[in-house]
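Researcher: Please translate sequence to structure tokens.
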Amino acid sequence: MTAEARSGREAPPIAIEVVRARPPLEPGEAAWRFPPPLGRGTIVVAGGDFEPATIIEGHRSGYFPWPHGDEEYLWFSPDPRAILPPERFYTSRRLARRIRQGRFRVTIDADFPAVIAACADRPTGTWITPGLAAAYRRLHELGWAHSIEVWSLEGVLIGGLYGVAIGGLFVAESKFHRATDASKIALAALVQWCRARGIVLIDVQVLTPHLASLGAMEVPRRAYLDQLRRALALPVRFLPDWSAAAGAQRTTITEG
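Model: Translation complete:
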């Protein structure tokens, strides 16, 4: 999908419950440095580790981890790169109707381990290796990785997504659904939350027909790196800081 494609259709507002909110803890200094992703075509870097500081350094440098087969530590910087500009998110009439019906609950960081486990549980196989899943759980504990959960009214987890937030960047890593449109509701909630928090760049890494139907698009790597630089410089956080509010554990936000 090109930049000239249709603009997004506004989704109905979604109530989002925040289970906890605190500033992220510093992961320490990365032991590895990534080469600048110059040139054309997809660049693959091998090596390193999945320490929290390494993953954050990779994202800041324009790479994301993507294990393949026996190669655990592979880092990709594709050209072009897929992004989902928040203002382009496309809501179909069916999805808008399902959101308005409100037969679900949406939370942030209520059960990160369950979300990443569900994303990795695919009959066709997964790139989310045990080592990578453990790394993202550590990033979550430090306050860098976040999950969005969609629950049935009976309290069953039916969809969600997870990713990493750094300044004005959110790297959407993976999503899943166990009920119709549940992952789309999670993505709609993510877009709404990012717009409210001032996050300007949602990185979806590789374009698929499904993501394109929701407004994702490809941009040249040079343009992506420019957007990345500006997003990382923004003084914004994915979650508000409630550390000074004794006993504060949950709130609900509805945009619109």
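Researcher: Any highlights?
Model: DSSP finds seven helices and twelve strands in the chain.
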